[in-house]
């Protein structure tokens, strides 16, 4: 049986790393762990995981929104595998989670967040589209999932001040709904990972972390949702890690 090939971006830490860790334990699975700092430090968590599962966890350089870098990653994967079955675009940034009202946000902050959070997933999708389509041609059901955020919600917005971040994830949600519409062969959707204890959530001074879940719980939940997802049931819709459909 040929393995299921996953590509996860933002795999060095936080939720992306937890996704790779969960996938590493699955049989017949290979996961390309996308990082921007390459080669991976052998003493880092990802370095150690790759050493433990040398056939299943393959670190690869994927810098968000860098076209040359993303194309090079796709070429490297293609040398070894003729298809990719699932991409989880998880890399993301938040220029600020607090103090960034519409009145105060800078155009530079909006552009920075859009570059990584909206353009990043597009760039990796464009680089890997051919390999995702090859999965479909071989009888598979390829998936492209982008890690979004509840902060993207437009109807009934979440009352946080992260204007640039929310706008960048709202743009991402539009792109994912559009991708699902355009690509009949691919199940595409955005997913909110939950409120997760990570470097990103810790950057907020005044948002209590009491209710935050672990990256592991988030990753396990998202992988369950992704596994169940079909074009009809999940494509183009906004989900959370627990399998609840969210309003855009
Ligand atoms: N934590 C939450 O509560 C929460 C809630 C909703 C949505 N999210 C989303 O979940 C995703 C993961 O967030 P997290 O909480 O795990 O955050 P995190 O711990 O801050 O991790 C962010 C990851 O993105 C990578 N990254 C940032 N800029 C990059 C770039 N230019 N190129 C490649 N990789 C880049 C980082 O790589 P380096 O290590 O190289 O910096 C890191 O691996 C993000 O998309 C975030 O928006 C998180």
UniProtKB/TrEMBL annotation:
<dbReference type="GO" id="GO:0016491">
    <property type="term" value="F:oxidoreductase activity"/>
</dbReference>
<keyword id="KW-0560">Oxidoreductase</keyword>
<dbReference type="Pfam" id="PF00106">
    <property type="entry name" value="adh_short"/>
</dbReference>
<dbReference type="InterPro" id="IPR036291">
    <property type="entry name" value="NAD(P)-bd_dom_sf"/>
</dbReference>
<dbReference type="InterPro" id="IPR051468">
    <property type="entry name" value="Fungal_SecMetab_SDRs"/>
</dbReference>
<comment type="similarity">
    <text>Belongs to the short-chain dehydrogenases/reductases (SDR) family.</text>
</comment>
<protein>
    <recommendedName>
        <fullName>NAD(P)-binding protein</fullName>
    </recommendedName>
</protein>
<dbReference type="GO" id="GO:0005737">
    <property type="term" value="C:cytoplasm"/>
</dbReference>
<keyword id="KW-0521">NADP</keyword>
<dbReference type="InterPro" id="IPR002347">
    <property type="entry name" value="SDR_fam"/>
</dbReference>
